[in-house]
């Protein structure tokens, strides 16, 4: 049943801003670790990822696309822009007008930078007649979206004006099928959270976000559908047996939602992932399918975001790990350091073997002292360093040191590669 979660994170980030919390702030670490950059000449709320930041994003994208395809999702691609009429039809305009960029007029037609993908996915669904045999149809996309957040709300990667959302819309044949898909979407979210090292009750909590029957400006008017949708989501959460809170007047305009909430290093709470039940769009878009009796039936829709906005997730991950990412997410996974100039050629050979094996490696053969180069690797939070000297050249080895475990010792380069590949493959924390 619904109740408040009193579990507290051991890190003091939710009440006040401690020194540790400040040291975890993703804006600070983003600069220090060279992950992203915001330039006023580009625009507020429009972060640019560096090569290191993009390495993290690429891992997240590959992970979620592969996992969703494994779970029966069809990954598609739709344009970042659409005709204004599409958003008038969906109801996003004018409901979300204040958070949308202004229309762009071209050849007497008005277009919008899209704030969401649901209308695009519905039009894909409508591209041909559908049968009950095709349902549930899970349409997924890593979609670039644009929302005009107020200047005072912008914050690093956590709240931006352009972002990539792990979005999906599941077209269902029945309410029972929709409830089952909501449960499966929550299973996926919990699995992903576990891979990232997030623990329920510590790093994240569940919230049931409800509508307001009296607020017809904010919400689609259909009291019976709201009642049924809210009870459906509440039932899914109760059947799962976990804790959740309920909050009024924070639903989507088209239906209630389950939000997975997380706090940043400064204690501000945001929605990280979400699952939403939609009783409005099937009517607006006439989403239908041919049933077992040959008759046309109204479909049901579930919206969900498995890992949320990539940018916001990156902000949470930077703060969760204080920049010391697990190997699979680390922008630089290994750094090769020759003791002196004499070992530079062999160090380059080792670096190239790592790189050719798919490991993100760097070679530091600069003129700095050995101690300084090792300290730099630690400051940059590189998980592994491989030091090579004369002995390593003779034995075709490298002396391996782990950020987490300290000095491991001299190992054959092939063995080091195998160790790192296995750790990356398993996404060990």
TrEMBL record:
Q: Which GO terms describe its cellular component?
A: cytoplasm
Q: Per the UniProt record, which EC number(s) apply here?
A: 6.1.1.3
Name a GO molecular-function annotation. Answer: metal ion binding
Q: What class of enzyme is it?
A: ligase
State the UniProt keywords alphabetically. Answer: Aminoacyl-tRNA synthetase, ATP-binding, Ligase, Metal-binding, Nucleotide-binding, Protein biosynthesis, Zinc
Biased composition of type Basic and acidic residues is found at: 1-11
Q: Which reactions fall under this protein's catalytic activity?
A: tRNA(Thr) + L-threonine + ATP = L-threonyl-tRNA(Thr) + AMP + diphosphate + H(+)
Q: What is this protein called?
A: Threonine--tRNA ligase
């Amino acid at each position: 049943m619904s109740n408040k979660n009193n579990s507290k994170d051991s890190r003091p980030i939710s009440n006040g801003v401690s020194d540790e919390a400040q040291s975890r702030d993703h804006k600070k670490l983003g600069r220090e670790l060279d992950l992203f950059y915001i330039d006023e000449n580009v625009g507020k709320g429009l972060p640019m990822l560096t090569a290191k930041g993009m390495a993290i994003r690429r891992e997240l994208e590959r992970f979620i696309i592969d996992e969703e395809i494994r779970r029966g999702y069809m990954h598609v691609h739709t344009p970042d822009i659409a005709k204004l009429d599409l958003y008038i039809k969906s109801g996003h305009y004018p409901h979300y007008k204040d958070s949308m960029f202004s229309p762009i007029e071209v050849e007497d037609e008005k277009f919008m930078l899209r704030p969401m993908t649901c209308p695009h996915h519905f039009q894909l669904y409508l591209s041909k007649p559908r049968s009950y045999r095709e349902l549930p149809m899970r349409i997924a996309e890593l979609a670039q979206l644009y929302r005009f957040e107020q200047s005072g709300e912008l914050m690093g990667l956590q709240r931006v004006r352009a972002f990539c959302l792990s979005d999906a819309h599941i077209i269902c044949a029945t309410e029972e099928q929709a409830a089952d898909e909501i449960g499966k979407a929550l299973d996926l979210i919990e699995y992903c959270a576990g891979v990232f090292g997030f623990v329920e009750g510590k790093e994240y909590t569940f919230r049931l976000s409800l509508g307001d029957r009296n607020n017809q400006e904010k919400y689609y008017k259909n009291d019976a559908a709201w009642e049924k949708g809210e009870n459906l989501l509440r039932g899914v959460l109760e059947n799962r047996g976990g804790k959740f809170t309920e909050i009024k007047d924070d639903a989507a305009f088209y239906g209630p939602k389950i939000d997975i909430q997380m706090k940043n290093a400064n204690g501000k709470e945001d929605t990280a992932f979400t699952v939403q039940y939609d009783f409005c769009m099937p009517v607006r878009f006439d989403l239908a399918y041919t049933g077992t009796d040959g008759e046309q039936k109204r479909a049901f829709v579930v919206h969900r975001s498995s890992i949320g906005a990539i940018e916001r997730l990156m902000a949470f991950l930077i703060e969760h790990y204080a920049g010391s990412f697990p190997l699979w997410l680390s922008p630089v996974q290994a750094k090769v350091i020759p003791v002196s100039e004499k070992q530079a050629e062999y160090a380059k050979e080792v670096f190239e073997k790592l790189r050719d094996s798919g490991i993100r490696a760097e070679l530091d053969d600069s003129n700095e002292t050995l101690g300084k180069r090792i300290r730099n690797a630690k400051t940059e939070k590189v998980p592994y360093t491989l030091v090579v000297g004369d002995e390593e050249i003779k034995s075709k080895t490298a002396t391996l040191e782990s950020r987490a475990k300290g000095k491991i010792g001299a190992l054959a380069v092939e063995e080091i590669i195998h160790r790192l590949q296995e750790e990356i493959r398993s996404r060990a924390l």
